[in-house]
Specification:
Mean pLDDT: 84
Strand content: under 5%
Helix content: over 70%
Number of strands: 0
Distance between the termini: 29 Å
Radius of gyration: 22 Å
């Protein structure tokens, strides 16, 4: 049995944040991913099915209109596309809200129980915070999107600042608007190091995504070279069910590996909170004092 416990409540530099992110996955991958699949899995499945429906709608419409008259006739194409996009949006908000909630409550349980994730605590915690998590996903998404539309740089700035909002909701027990407000206070003076950390994390994340997409790229290029005539006559024929299934597998990998970014967001919160309030240091001193009196 592994008795190694990761201390979240301490200051960290960039390398330590990255290292401890993967360390937590190594120590707790089994209960963590089990909870993610149990709590956020249904939303991920709905998101995956909606995306595959969207893909089939697009490629069916761009190819033979007679391939599937249920979806791809001229009259039904627009409605099918809108339905798919609405379901994708709703399920994506639910999935990422539930995933963030699951990971943050797992970390909270891990900290409170000295290195053990209590599944019942995580499930009840996510249920309790469900609407706050979903509301936070919507509001943060709107703020970042508005900043990106106005000018890319404000979108990047808001994206970095608001990374800690899910952690604040779970660990500080604040509401959505209070969490957003507090995130600006928490990151004050630490924006650049947080940005650098997230930049490295996103590069790692996209490398993992690209690795997961290798099978579908291999299949696509093999089929393109072996069926060049068919591709010229009907480009949509290249995107058959094998390609779509491989694309679906790549999406599952993409959704699950995002846990790396989520865990790092929690560790970033503890790093910023420790630099500002020194809560971990104070708790350590108090625990040492209690030991001395005993």
């Amino acid at each position: 049995m592994n008795n190694e416990i990761l201390n979240f409540k301490k200051q960290r530099e960039l390398g330590e944040i990255l290292g401890d992110t993967f360390k937590f996955i190594r120590l707790q991958w089994k209960p963590l991913f089990g909870l993610i699949l149990r709590i956020a899995g249904p939303a991920m499945l709905l998101l995956l099915l909606a995306y595959l429906f969207y893909m089939q709608t697009m490629f069916g419409a761009s190819g033979s209109m007679d391939a599937s008259p249920i979806y791809f006739t001229t009259g039904n194409f627009g409605a099918s596309l809108v339905i798919a996009m609405v379901i994708i949006l709703i399920s994506a908000i639910a999935y990422y809200g539930l995933m963030y909630g699951t990971v943050m409550h797992s970390i909270r349980s891990y900290v409170n129980n000295h290195g053990k994730i209590v599944k019942s605590e995580v499930i009840s915690g996510v249920k309790q915070d469900f609407w706050k998590l979903v509301g936070n996903s919507i509001l943060v998404g709107l703020i970042v999107a508005a900043g990106t539309v106005l000018c890319i740089l404000p979108g990047i700035y808001f994206g970095v600042v608001l990374t800690t909002t899910y952690s604040i909701i779970v660990f500080e027990r604040k509401g959505v608007t209070d969490a957003i407000s507090y995130s600006f206070e928490l990151i004050k003076g630490q924006w650049w190091i947080t940005f650098a950390t997230l930049l490295v994390l996103m590069i790692l994340y996209y490398v993992m995504i690209m690795i997961g997409q290798i099978p579908q790229y291999i299949y696509f290029f093999i089929k393109m070279f072996t069926e060049a005539g068919t591709f010229t006559a009907d480009p949509a024929s290249m995107f058959d069910w094998v390609y779509i299934a491989l694309n679906g597998l790549a999406m599952v990998i993409q959704y699950l590996t995002y846990v790396v970014v989520v865990i790092a967001g929690g560790i970033i919160y503890f790093n910023l909170n420790e630099r500002k309030h020194h809560t971990g240091t104070i708790e350590t001193i108090e625990s040492l004092g209690k030991r001395d009196t005993i």
